[in-house]
Design a protein that fits this description.
Number of domains: 1
Distance between the termini: 21 Å
Oligomer: single chain
Shape: globular
Strand content: under 5%
Number of strands: 0
CATH class: Mainly Alpha
Helix content: over 70%
CATH superfamily: MFS general substrate transporter like domains
Order of helices and strands: HHHHHHHHHHHHHHHHHHH
Length: 431
């Protein structure tokens, strides 16, 4: 028990300290993932690379970010949250610093594509799911919503600042700033991360002694299996369940319509329409303000209502906003209206999806299986990041990309209503 824990003993449950720390880690990861959005045009000008070439590195980044999710969850079972997070932060910080010396497209793919994709993938939403399952019995939906909203908060804090730095000091300064922020989190995590409440002699927040006894009897606190084995075995168990594929497919659409399309190409879309980069980044950051509220509210709702209907409304309303976007007049107020409406729904889909995953697959398997579902999210994001760039290269506009994404959201809205809520796999235990 460290000095901070002793000082807080009896005043504040350490679960809230852990949640706050994970919020900061995910916020930094969000800043890293948002940075390519302000670098596309500067890299075009600096190196003469095409937008599709730059988008291919972003697509690789997003795909690896998703593919590493289930293995990140398994690594947290095998090696612990602290060691996994420290490795990820070190890799991301080193890769961004190395990118300042790149001169060829393959170096862009290596740093911003491969290395940052792996590092950020180990700090994906599965980190939040693992921490929430370990540290909380009460208020899980609200905490998961708040942690998920850190993605939007990262944009809120960093994007306008990074866009301003690009204009005044160039893209390399932006890279050094983001690398430095990631590096600063390394000693903080080394000091404060605690694996489980039991390590401090605590129960999870909201748990009773009976809950703790049941969890302890169900499984050992750590897994000794290879993380690759853990991840693939969880996928094998989930693959025969129709609900898994419904959630996987709907999350593919979620990633396609958020990170891959809006997160990657929105600023470039606005620049094409004559809006300055800093103002465009401000609109994207405004979405972050509204998503912080929307996703936290979604977590509260997921504890109280049928999560299938929540997902139906989230995907349906997002699709309508994307159908509207190509026909806006590029004024700050017109795009601001889109930003408010879209922002409330940006990643509100995560808490209901996590809740359905927990209900169907059980607490032990749920974080790793959610990692596989999140893989679908990032494959969708990678598809949109590359596809929208290719559409722009072919037609000189993003209109087709936005219309396609809006239509796919409508399909996802209908599909999620067919998911089941009853448990089908139960291997509950400590995670």
């Amino acid at each position: 028990m460290n000095a901070l824990t002793r000082k807080l003993d009896g005043r504040l449950h350490y679960a809230w300290i852990t949640a706050g720390l994970v919020f900061m880690v995910l916020l930094v990861a969000a800043a890293v993932r948002a940075t390519p959005g302000v670098l596309i045009v500067p890299l075009e000008h600096a190196f003469g690379w095409s937008r599709s070439t730059i988008s291919s590195a972003v697509a690789l980044n997003l795909a690896l970010y998703g593919l590493l999710g289930p293995f990140g969850g398994a690594a947290m079972q095998r090696f612990g949250i602290k060691r996994t997070t420290l490795f990820a932060l070190t890799l991301v910080s080193a890769a961004i610093a190395l990118s300042t010396m790149m001169h060829s497209p393959w170096q862009l793919l290596l740093t911003w594509g491969f290395m940052i994709g792996i590092g950020s993938g180990l700090m994906a939403a599965v980190l939040a799911a693992t921490v929430v399952n370990r540290w909380f019995r009460a208020r899980r939906g609200v905490v998961m919503g708040a942690l998920t909203a850190s993605t939007a908060t990262g944009q809120l804090i960093f994007l306008p600042v990074l866009a301003s730095i690009v204009q005044s000091d160039g893209w390399r300064t932006v890279a050094w700033v983001v690398a430095g922020v990631a590096a600063l989190m390394i000693p903080v995590c080394a000091w404060l991360i605690v694996e489980r409440p039991q390590d401090l002699g605590l129960l999870p927040y909201g748990a009773t002694a009976e809950d703790a006894s049941a969890s302890a009897a169900a499984a050992p606190p750590h897994s000794s299996s290879n993380p690759l084995v853990i991840a693939w075995q969880a996928l094998r168990r989930a693959a025969g369940v129709r609900t898994f594929w419904i959630l996987f497919g709907s999350f593919f659409v979620c990633g396609l319509s958020t990170n891959g399309l809006i997160g990657t190409h929105f600023i470039s879309f606005c620049i094409d329409g004559g809006m300055p980069e800093v103002r465009a980044a401000s609109v994207l950051a405004m979405m972050g303000i509204f998503d912080l509220a929307g996703t936290t509210l979604s977590g509260w709702l997921s504890d109280r209502y049928d999560n299938r209907w929540l997902l139906f409304w989230y995907y349906g309303l997002r699709g309508l906003s994307l159908l509207y976007l190509p026909y806006s007049d590029f004024t700050f107020w017109s795009l601001g209206l889109f930003g408010m409406f879209y922002g409330l729904d940006w990643i509100a889909t995560v808490p209901p999806t996590v809740r359905i995953t927990n209900d169907v697959f059980g607490e032990r398997d749920a974080p790793v299986i959610f990692g596989w579902i999140f893989t679908g999210h990032q494959l969708g994001a990678a598809t949109a990041a590359f596809g929208a760039g290719a559409i722009h290269a072919a037609f000189g506009a993003y209109t087709g990309a936005f219309l396609f994404a809006g239509a796919m959201c409508g399909v996802a809205a209908l599909a999620v209503l067919t998911a089941r809520r009853a448990p089908v796999l139960r291997t509950a235990g400590a995670v």
